[in-house]
Design goal:
heterodimer, A: mainly alpha, Cytochrome C Oxidase, Chain A, two-stranded antiparallel ribbon, 2 strands, 66% helix, 1% strand, globular, B: mainly alpha, Four Helix Bundle (Hemerythrin (Met), subunit A), elongated, binds copper (II) ion
């Protein structure tokens, strides 16, 4: 990604990337960092699935299994989803609002390096931490780290402390990035760029940043309490000393549920950019989309206890949280119909970004519907902590977030690198990943209904679980092959990809008005806009969008 | 095609509301910090009256001393505003005076809190691990104290720069942002005080 100046020594290049405050370079590092950990988390999952491919597996022992699912979940949420999505925000928001950089460039660099340091802390546990089973113990308390398992009594040594500190530090990183995104969107927009003329992606990132500012500090606070418990003998979550294990669940899921929307709203943002361009239509219902996003954000703050139905809260509380969860499906459904409405009657072109976007709609809807099923309290009592739940959230986070991320990578790769990704390999990648994800995650619903609990390292024969687990595990191979085609595509296209030009997709937002890759200062002249689609206006001065704006 | 987005069309009225990025950034930070404090406040309220043994709030917390401390902290919000005003008008000597007074009042609060803690430990044997009251009390008040200390470090930095003549009237906005943080720390104290000393002492 540094094509120029081969005569420079590599140390100079490393130095340049280390001290950079350019939002584009930082974003590339965010995304590369996240993709790197995507492979790490993927390998962890592959080992888990190899263990479970057959009954009575003996590949790894139970404590290694516990460490691997903890690290897999923690990695995918905090070191893959967050940095990649915030990285796209970092790259695109200044370009989309016509600014030369983020509001606080140095804070931006600080945020990235906090993420890196948090990741180092978490993974250092493999080298330096002592756990229940002696040295070199990664955290093994699960990604939501329920009390009292995390107390000194049940989690001696320091592996849990590395989990706490790693997430805390990367959490500070996401908070600084959120501050930066809000300030950039509110203060750095170019002349004429009113809030309602911003690309919808900017609205999504604004709401995501707000959710980060509300949700992540709550996790930070809970982790601080846990540290006080573990090091100073406080009793917040210490059931022996009168503390409440349920309080941790409340506080964790107050963060945890909005976190799901933090991971999926940016992907909504990608779709909002990609679907209109590949349908050759204006987005259907811009204001509706903004309103639905705000509604999702508010409702998402009051649904957390749907993760706690098996705790035995009062029926009134259970009913409230079930109802709120049903309610959040309404604005989400509005979004689905907004995308379908945009595609309806459009001149659809299914290039790779659009393939991923279209698949997202279907897979996310499926994951959303199983989510609504789990919001039915008695249904959840039956299937809570089963593979049905694992299947559900992988449809949302893999079929949703990961597919959204790959849609975005194929769509904006030409802007970032100046080279197109190969379409043929892209199609292979899409279909392999689509098949792989279906083969992996769909059978989980069935094994869950048949009674397979999540987080078990082994299961007995003769309970009807062998076939479904074998299918699930074999899907991993498809995904691995898919990812190899993707990596090959990236390497090949960086070397000999077709030059992209400024605007290869014939899109309408400001990032496509500058060169590919953009110069360090983004725009030679700060743009002025008079509608939500400035590049349409530039090409069609006789029929500009601004003529159709309300009040025009 | 660089810069081609600038069309020849008239640009309709720009949005008039365009806050400074410093203000937005500080307000976002304050929002995030508020959520951290709220979590600790909720934990305090959740555990009120649930300490099975050991000292209870009503027997141990004494109002006179903490009220004096609170008055010192709250009045420092006014002195820091006076300092920012003086800087805006280029009255540097006055600014340094107001800043020094602000720091002194904040330091008074820190010392006062530590002496209160010393008394609680010596006379009542209340430590963070004693019971749930000790856990939630020291955590919440300590979290706030940490923020007071961070604010004092920031203000002392400004004062040190001012002493060397490095602070100009053009820095007024930056110093004003620090004063916003200081107001936040003071405002949070009102909530912490109400939670710990009013609600906490009132319950059986
Ligand atoms: Cu949830």
């Amino acid at each position: 990604m540094t094509p120029d100046a081969p005569q420079r020594p590599w140390t100079a290049i490393v130095h340049e990337w280390t001290v950079t405050v350019d939002h584009k370079k930082l974003a590339i590092m965010y995304i590369a960092f996240g993709l790197g950990f995507f492979l790490v988390g993927g390998v962890e999952a592959a080992i888990l699935r190899a263990q479970l491919a057959q009954h009575s597996g003996t590949l790894i022992d139970p404590d290694t299994f516990n460490q691997l699912f903890t690290m897999h979940g923690t990695t995918m949420v905090f070191l893959v989803g967050m940095p990649i999505l915030l990285g796209f925000g970092n790259y695109l928001i200044p370009l989309m609002v016509g600014a030369r950089d983020m509001a606080f460039p140095r804070l931006n660099a600080f945020g990235l390096w906090l993420f890196v340091f948090g990741a180092l802390l978490l993974y250092y546990s493999y080298v330096g931490a002592e756990g229940l089973y002696g040295e070199s113990a990664a955290p093994d308390v699960g990604w939501f780290a329920y009390a009292p398992l995390t107390s000194r009594t049940f989690s001696p040594g320091n592996s849990t402390d590395y989990w706490i500190l790693g997430i805390m530090v990367s959490g500070f990183g996401s908070i600084t990035t959120a501050v930066n995104l809000v300030a950039t969107i509110l203060c750095m927009r170019c002349p004429g760029m009113t809030l309602l003329r911003m690309p919808l992606m900017c609205w999504m990132m604004l709401v995501v940043a707000a959710l980060v500012l509300v949700a992540v500090p709550v996790l930070t606070a809970a982790q601080a309490m846990l540290l006080l418990d573990r090091f100073l003998g406080a009793h917040f979550f210490d059931t022996q000393g009168g503390g409440s294990a349920i309080l941790w669940q409340h506080v964790f899921w107050f963060f945890g549920h909005p976190e799901v929307y933090i991971l999926v709203l940016p992907a909504f943002g990608f779709l909002n950019e990609i679907i209109p361009v590949f349908s050759r239509k204006v987005i259907f219902g811009y204001a509706l989309m903004v309103a639905a996003t705000l509604a999702i954000a508010f409702i998402a703050l009051a649904v957390w206890a749907h993760h706690m139905f098996v705790v035995g809260l009062s029926p009134e509380l259970n009913s409230f949280f079930a109802a709120m969860t049903f309610l959040v499906a309404v604005p989400t459904g509005i979004k689905i119909f907004t995308w379908l409405g945009t595609m309806a009657g459009g001149r659809l072109r299914f290039a790779t970004p659009m393939l991923f976007a279209a698949a997202f709609i279907g897979l996310f809807t499926f994951g959303g519907l199983t989510g609504v099923m789990l919001a039915v309290v008695p249904f959840d009592w039956q299937l809570s902590d089963s593979y049905f739940v694992v299947g559900h959230f992988h449809f949302v986070l893999f079929g949703g977030t990961v597919f959204g991320i790959f849609a975005a990578i194929f769509y904006w790769f030409p802007k970032v690198t100046g080279k197109m990704l190969d379409e043929r390999l892209g199609r292979w990648f899409f279909w392999l990943l689509f098949a792989g994800m279906f083969v992996t995650f769909f059978p989980m619903h069935i094994s869950g209904i048949l009674g397979m609990p999540r987080r078990i390292y082994s299961y007995q024969p003769g309970r009807g679980l062998e076939l479904w687990n074998l299918i699930t595990s074999s899907g991993v191979l498809l995904q691995a092959v898919a990812l190899i085609t993707f990596l090959w595509n990236v390497i090949k296209s960086l070397g000999s990809g077709v030059p992209a030009g400024d605007n290869p997709w014939n899109a309408w937002t400001l990032e496509w008005s500058t060169s590919s890759p953009p110069p360090e200062w983004n725009f030679d002249r700060i743009p002025r806009v008079s509608s939500a689609r400035p590049l349409w206006d530039a090409v069609h001065p006789d029929d500009p969008d601004s003529a159709y704006e309300e009040g025009a | 095609m660089s810069g081609a987005a600038s069309t020849h069309l008239p640009v309709p009225n720009e949005s008039a509301w365009r806050p400074t990025r410093g203000a937005v950034g500080m307000l976002c930070l304050i929002a995030a910090e508020s959520c951290i404090f709220l979590t600790f406040v909720v934990a305090y309220l959740f555990y009120i009256g649930k300490s099975a043994h050991g000292p209870q709030p009503r027997e141990t917390l004494e109002l006179p001393m903490v009220i004096v401390n609170s008055v010192a902290l709250i009045s420092s919000s006014f002195t820091v505003v006076a300092g920012v005003r003086a800087l805006e008008h280029g009255r540097f000597a006055a600014m340094k005076g107001w800043l020094a007074l602000t720091i002194a009042l904040g330091a008074w609060f820190v010392v006062g809190t530590f002496s209160e803690w010393g008394k609680l430990m010596d006379e009542h044997g209340l430590f963070i691990g004693t019971n749930l009251f000790g856990t939630t009390f020291y955590a919440l008040v300590g979290l706030h104290l940490l923020h007071v200390i961070v604010g004092l470090v920031l203000l002392s930095g400004v004062l040190a720069c001012a002493m060397r003549g490095r602070v100009a009237a053009t820095h007024a906005h930056a110093v004003d942002m620090i004063s916003w943080y200081w107001h936040f720390v003071d405002g949070v104290w009102i909530i912490v005080f109400t939670t710990v000393y009013v609600v906490g002492r009132a319950s059986p």
